[in-house]
């Protein structure tokens, strides 16, 4: 037994904290101003406070207003002619002996231009809404990824801090023993190096955690720190395992907003092509005229009809351009379909690999057994049955195992998040 400073090294070892079992984050882990949020609560906050979504909603409303604008008729025009006598004797003469004439003209759009403009505005508004849904889909995917990464990174940091606390006490004890020559100096230096390395690991993990916290706050549109909380029991077993790739692909082709945008892009191109052809048809001008002292009779009334003569400009260039845009949209649609199929297939294989890597209770059972082993190792260390370095090796193994398990669950949930993103719909089973 090594004695120093009136107490034994074994007595110092007995005061070391024991490793904590696999457990959920509690309110005690959070600061007073920290919001503890489940994934469902986070989604609700995101939908109501995300700034990008709020801005995009205004764009949707703005484009929808253009549908009403497209339905409106063109305003009539009014022209008044007031007599000024001859050029040699300019003097207003608006009386009964003077000249006064009025004309009203209304454009009547032919070839269904107005209805085609309404159809084009409707497709543009639908595209804007689909774009909003696609933005929400992308941001929600980022939110879930940050939420998951933060939760498991936070858990790993708790283990690292626990290891740091234990190691700090051991190093403090060995420092006293080293100063009195009671322990090998090499053992003390090895522990100091391990202590520095562990502190660097903690600082690196905290830096990553700060970045994730910043991302979460920006996505949620808040400045208050949050602490993600998962209903962790049975994570693996609650995730669906009987998904069929063909069904997922078919669903994605139907509901994915970017696929809907591709379809609307083709419809918009067709609607624009039809409108450009209609524009080639001249509009009709219908009006009425009044002339107080015309050359025919007094108080002359006339009906006016007019139409542009399409001799040179028949909108040929715009029609040709619109036709090419229809063909372009068709090719883009085929490309988008290929993107959807390959993304769903890749996400499905990735999720399936993680889901089938372990049985639902395999990791939890192993973690409990490993925790029991580490507890026994700690007891044997306090009794002096194993060396300090053996204890450190076992305890580092516990830390590595804990981090590996956190890494697996994080990767599994992110793989499921990627699959939901690729399909464009929630696939979570009901609890």
From TrEMBL:
GO molecular function annotation: efflux transmembrane transporter activity
Coiled coil, from the record: none
One matching Pfam family: OEP
Alphabetical list of InterPro entries matching this protein: MdtP/NodT-like (IPR010131), OMP_efflux (IPR003423)
Stored SUPFAM superfamilies: Outer membrane efflux proteins (OEP)
Positions of transmembrane segments: none
Family label: Belongs to the outer membrane factor (OMF) (TC 1.B.17) family.
Name this protein carries in UniProt: Outer membrane protein, cobalt-zinc-cadmium efflux system
Organism lineage: Bacteria, Pseudomonadati, Bacteroidota, Chitinophagia, Chitinophagales
């Amino acid at each position: 037994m090594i004695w120093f400073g009136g107490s034994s090294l074994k007595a110092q070892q007995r005061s070391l904290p024991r490793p904590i079992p696999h457990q959920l984050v509690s309110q005690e882990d959070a600061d007073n101003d920290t919001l503890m949020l489940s994934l469902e609560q986070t989604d609700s906050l995101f939908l109501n406070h995300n700034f990008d979504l709020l801005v995009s909603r205004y764009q949707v409303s703005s484009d929808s207003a253009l549908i009403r604008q497209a339905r409106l008729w063109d305003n009539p025009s009014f022209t008044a002619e007031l007599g000024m006598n001859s050029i040699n004797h300019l003097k207003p003469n608006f009386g009964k002996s003077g000249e006064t004439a009025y004309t009203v003209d209304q454009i009547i759009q032919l070839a269904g231009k107005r209805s085609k403009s309404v159809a084009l505005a409707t497709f543009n508004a639908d595209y804007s809404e689909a774009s909003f849904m696609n933005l929400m889909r992308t941001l929600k995917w980022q939110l879930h990824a940050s939420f998951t990464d933060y939760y498991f990174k936070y858990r790993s940091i708790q283990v690292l801090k626990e290891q740091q606390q234990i190691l700090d006490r051991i190093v403090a004890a060995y420092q006293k023993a080293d100063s009195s020559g009671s322990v090998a100096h090499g053992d003390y230096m090895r522990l100091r190096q391990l202590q520095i390395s562990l502190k660097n690991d903690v600082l690196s993990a905290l830096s990553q955690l700060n970045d994730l916290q910043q991302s979460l706050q920006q996505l949620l549109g808040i400045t208050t720190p949050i602490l993600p909380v998962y209903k962790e029991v049975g994570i693996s077993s609650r995730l669906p395992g009987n998904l069929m790739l063909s069904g997922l692909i078919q669903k994605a082709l139907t509901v994915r907003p970017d696929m809907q945008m591709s379809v609307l892009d083709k419809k918009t191109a067709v609607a624009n092509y039809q409108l450009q052809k209609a524009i080639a048809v001249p509009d009709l001008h219908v009006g009425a005229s009044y002339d107080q002292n015309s050359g025919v009779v007094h108080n002359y009334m006339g009906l006016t009809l007019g139409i542009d003569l399409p001799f040179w400009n028949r909108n040929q260039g715009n029609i040709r351009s619109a036709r090419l845009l229809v063909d372009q949209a068709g090719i883009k649609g085929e490309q988008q379909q290929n993107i959807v199929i390959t993304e769903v297939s890749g996400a499905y294989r990735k999720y399936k690999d993680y889901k089938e890597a372990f049985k639902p209770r395999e990791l939890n059972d192993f973690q409990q057994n490993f925790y029991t082993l580490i507890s026994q190792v700690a007891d044997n260390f306090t009794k002096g049955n194993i060396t300090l370095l053996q204890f450190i090796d076992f305890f580092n193994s516990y830390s590595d195992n804990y981090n590996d398990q956190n890494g697996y669950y994080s990767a599994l949930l992110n793989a499921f998040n990627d699959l939901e993103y690729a399909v464009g719909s929630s696939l979570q089973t009901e609890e």
